[in-house]
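Hey L., structure's done. Input below.
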Amino acid sequence: MSSPFLRALAFSLAFSGTLAVTPSVFASTSDTDLEPDLDHGQRLHRQCALCHGQYSQGILGGKYPRLAGLPDYYLMKSLTDYRDGTREHAAMTVVGGLRTLSDNDLASLSAYIASIDLDAVHPLDVPTPEGADVENGEDIYKSDCKTCHGRSAEGNKRKESPKLAGQYDGYLFRQIEKFKAGKRMHANDPEDETFVDYNDQDILDIIGFVTTIDDKSDDKN
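Output:
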């Protein structure tokens, strides 16, 4: 039997399907000199697919997060940070080959990943973590998180905040722990103390609520 790596490689190289493109996918780069190319972005994505999956759907449990459908402005910033060494992750720079990519490469890759409509090609059922008080999480989210991440956790370009809806709880937990430990900077503010006053249950509740937002989206429209 071939190794998991070789199976993933063959799987990603075989993928050449056409995906739905979000109409606003180029909005964040329209005022720059970058010219995203979705076909080029799809070719570059073959390396990302080795860890994040054929559709960038991530892995249940959040070892590798969902990337599909994240805003292109956020993907572009994150990929640039990894390429330039502001953020470090060997898989991103070695397997993904980010060190050798130009700004236009990153713009094309970001635009392609942002264009992937998982509801159409690979629907996800993101579980709510056991023990979460979703109602308390909703109250905290609407009080402290909505301004930056949006009413439906869709992200906010002006604040460079990512979409949270549809993300795996395990990945969100790990990032919050990094924020608390000072290993990642939250809200582009090195002195940010957003999570200082939250106990473990509060964080569980917030994440629990976020995992339900996609489930409720049809009811909110």
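Residues 132 and 201 are 7 Å apart (CA to CA). Confidence is low (pLDDT under 50) at residues 1-31, 216-221.

-- N.
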